[in-house]
Amino acid sequence: MTAEAHDISRAFRDEHGWEILAEFASLLRIPNVTGEIDDLRRNAAAIKTLFEDRGASIEVVELQGASPVLVGELRTADATATVGVYVHYDGQPVDQSRWRVGPFDATLMSGPIHAGAAEVAYPDSATEIDPEWRIYARGASDDKTPLAALAAALDALVMAGRERSIDLVFLFEGEEESGSPNLDRYMTELAPRLEADLWLLCDGPVHQSRLPQVAFGARGYSGFDLTFYGPERELHSGHYGNWVPNPAMELAQFLATCKDSAGAVTIPGFYDDTWPMSDADRSAIDALPPVEETLQEELGFAGPELEGASYSDRLMRPSFNVRGLAAAAVGSEGRNVIPSEATASVDMRLAAGDDPTTMLRRVVAHLGAAGYVVLEADPTPEQRRAHRRLARLTPSPGYRAVRIPMDSDVARLLLEACGRASGMEVVALPTFGGSIPLYLFEDLLKAPVAVLPIANHDNNQHAPDENVRVANLWYGIDLWATLLTTDFSAVRRS
Amino acid sequence: MTAEAHDISRAFRDEHGWEILAEFASLLRIPNVTGEIDDLRRNAAAIKTLFEDRGASIEVVELQGASPVLVGELRTADATATVGVYVHYDGQPVDQSRWRVGPFDATLMSGPIHAGAAEVAYPDSATEIDPEWRIYARGASDDKTPLAALAAALDALVMAGRERSIDLVFLFEGEEESGSPNLDRYMTELAPRLEADLWLLCDGPVHQSRLPQVAFGARGYSGFDLTFYGPERELHSGHYGNWVPNPAMELAQFLATCKDSAGAVTIPGFYDDTWPMSDADRSAIDALPPVEETLQEELGFAGPELEGASYSDRLMRPSFNVRGLAAAAVGSEGRNVIPSEATASVDMRLAAGDDPTTMLRRVVAHLGAAGYVVLEADPTPEQRRAHRRLARLTPSPGYRAVRIPMDSDVARLLLEACGRASGMEVVALPTFGGSIPLYLFEDLLKAPVAVLPIANHDNNQHAPDENVRVANLWYGIDLWATLLTTDFSAVRRS
Fold first, then answer.
1. Which of residues 38-77 of B touch A (CB under 8 A)?
2. A219 CB within 8 Å of a chain B CB
């Protein structure tokens, strides 16, 4: 009887785990802040080498004004289907002062840093590796983990002499954290080299219960920075306070009209286009392990925004999140002034059915109804003197949500593979809470797409002290070893 | 006939204006950010020399943990009364990136920098000085101008052989911009050396109409930083947005309950203790030159917070001003997170009758009514998990407002002196909008106190590009020459 793929990969990482960690750490030490093009090019070059070393044919393509993508393939004899693998190698900006370790040092820790874990030396061939160790770095979980996991799984199968069952095509992007502004151009241009029966992404975390999960969709994204204007320059608040309009107070007043105290967005029409929940959705959600109490304890808060709300229910709806506020200064830097302007940064996560442009239009209409003249640039001196209520709305690039049927062959094969790889129950999630530009795979590559997360849920994605738990990297390797040897002929489309 | 004091001072500054500007500039080049004790000591030493050079006896006194004060006197034969002079030599913090000139370079400009003025070389004895020139520096208007004006006025009288009519006592403070936390200790300790029939302050700007003014009071101060708490660390807004509470949105919602859209503060009891406006107040206010349209044009906004509100009316009431907001980040630094905390910094200007502690208590009660547990420190992990709504309120030191009768001898003499010095109509202001700890003069020094501003109203006090117009410095010199030769026997108290 042939060995199971996950047994092959386990044996491989028992022996070579220290080398896997070392190779991953060297990738994480290349800074990857989105928009930093020189750093991103260095990442692309390193990733090209990583997969060429595993026999793939891979090319770095760079369109004018865009961060490079990697496109490539790794074929096999008698492939049952072609599976596309999408990964993004850029990461969110880092505020170094708020990290407890260097964001690009790839520090290995004995556990969660916020729980007082100590630094651990990288292992050598004689060291036993504790799966509760964590590697801290921007990109450790979001989204360099799948690169390391796939590379190690390929090594494991080769070492064991085991044939792969699928052809792979690759698309690795370098500006997902900037909203993927050029992914459509890349996909359009490279479409002939990206033909696949199914695309897989490994972005985002596994379920909060630590069970593996497959997400059959992801929310879309729309967002904006909104600036209100007061006097042309900061004014002494004693001499002018409460006569001259205060943009910080007016911004607070406007934001308060966007959401009620029960957590419902009150921008007219906000929920109008969201698909109603189907019976299948309802059943899937009801089958999800309850996570609320554990999450509250882990994340450090006393109760949800909307009292009694189910976590998974909330992901089926669009969200309105104030991700930042700024006006003049607070604390020891505070000055007794009327601020000259005040800004809120907002992200909206879109549910299936919501259109990003329509959502922004509703915000603009809501501003208009509150008496604001909405500009796309800073106001001129004349505009400041002509309009009592002035706002600047700067939209972020957005995209719609995607969901695929949970009773399809794709779904069945993926859930089975995750189950074999992990030996655990698998969570079937109707939609992922985070945003991924899945619509491009549907529209431009004409293929279904699903998300198989690898990283731990407490990975501090997008925040200081991002990390990946070693046990999750190990799961990623076992998962890829399993996928690479799975018969995907049921989803073959031609 | 004896020459008028203001003619003496005019002749003096016609000849020595270039030396006055040079001496003032050297004082402004000593950084004076409040709280920076070493810099403040250098200022104190320089000011001591400035007045010792004019024959004053002056001492630097420094209490433990406080910024130094200067205390001193300059007596004359046959003085009609003793006048105390209070000045503060510290300035607000500077955000250098937002200044168009170095905040401690004392750059001389041909006019207002925001209107495109060019730098001007400091004059020599042969240069004609344009009174529309401005000196840019932190402290140029708030509050080093009176030091330069008084020193030059003393020189002018000595040069002309003119006797002074009053004894002077001095109290120069170095932490007014930190809320004068030790002024009471200093006044209590130094009271025997601070006996005077009347205290004068020259803080704040002249009237917006550019007419000279006397303020018969100033508003008090109370303020606080208010922080709301969300999850223990920033969370990915896609995975957790609109399930985990967002402290930025909740802060906006709370602030919106503090003020209505017409600009009325809606914290229960906020206006309860404010003295009602008397007929005399009403008449004084009605006699003030209208400034609203000019101010809107100059300050760059289209209309007041409360439509149709009179500027001077608003100063008779307490204010609630959001001086700063902060949560995570906005703009290019923005991250897709639920902020872990959000802070608003608020200053309240108190009208006569309001008590600073009571006002803070009303804010705390309003937070309590909204369901917040109010702490004085950051919450513990246990508190975060126990209370759905947590706030930290950090109060700033505050004090009450002061007003003195407008039909007193003090008022008459000061209005007459300003009129003679300027040759203009004088604005009689029932209260100044800014906050000055006048109550200490009443309570600890048992003397009436009035405010005679010197600086131009568009001086960017507390903001980047603070400046003083040379014409205003000239007025300050003429004012002090006049005050020093005025018969103040009508206000003599012993």
1. none
2. yes
CA separation for the pair B237, A435 (Å, rounded): 10
Span A422-444, average pLDDT: 90
Q: What is the pTM of this model?
A: 0.78
CB contact under 8 A, B435 and A242: no
Task: Note whether B388 contacts A339, CB cutoff 8 Å.
Answer: no
Q: What is the mean pLDDT of residues B308-320?
A: 91
Which residues, numbered 4 to 43 in chain A, qualify as contacts with chain B under a Cβ-Cβ cut-off of 8 Å? none
pLDDT at A188 over 80: yes
Find residues 388-417 of chain A whose CB sits inside 8 Å of chain B.
388, 390
- Are B435 and A326 an interchain contact pair (Cβ–Cβ within 8 Å)? no
d(CA A283, CA A288): 9
pLDDT band at A1 (very low <50, low <70, confident <90, very high): low
B342 to chain A, closest Cα gap in Å: 8
In chain B, which residues have their Cβ closer than 8 Å to the Cβ of A223? 336
Exposure string (b/e) for B314-331, b if CB count within 10 Å is 16 or more?
A: bbbbbbbbbbbbbbbbbe
Q: Examine the pLDDT at B77 and tell me if it is beyond 90.
A: yes
Residues in A closer than 8 angstroms to B461, CB to CB, are: 236, 239
CB nearest B256 (choices: A95, A114, A256): A256
Looking at residue B39, what is its pLDDT? 98
Of B219, B223, B235, the CB nearest to A299: B235
Beta bridge partners of A74: A168
pLDDT-based confidence at residue A222 (cuts at 50, 70, 90): very high
DSSP A437: -
Asked if A70 and A42 touch (Cβ cutoff 8 Å), the reply is no
Q: Mind telling me how many Å the CA of A56 is from chain B's nearest CA? A: 33
**C-alpha distances in Å from residue A211, one per residue of A315, A422, A454, B95:** 18, 9, 10, 49
Using a CB–CB cutoff of 8 Å, tell me whether B305 touches chain A: yes
- Average pLDDT score over chain B: 94
Q: Say yes or no: ipTM exceeds 0.90.
A: no
Contacts of A337 in chain B (CB under 8 A): 323, 462-463
Residues 6+ apart with CB under 8 A from B418: B212, B213, B214, B426, B452, B479, B482
* d(C-alpha B260, C-alpha B288), whole Å: 28
pLDDT 10s digits, B401-452: 998 877 789 988 999 999 999 999 999 988 888 888 889 999 999 999 999 9
Contact list in A for residue B204 (CB cut-off 8 A) is: 238-239
State the Cα–Cα distance between residues A174 and A210, nearest whole angstrom: 28
Distance from CA of B361 to the nearest CA of A (A): 20
Between β-strands A373-375 and B81-88, what pairing exists: parallel, antiparallel or unpaired? unpaired
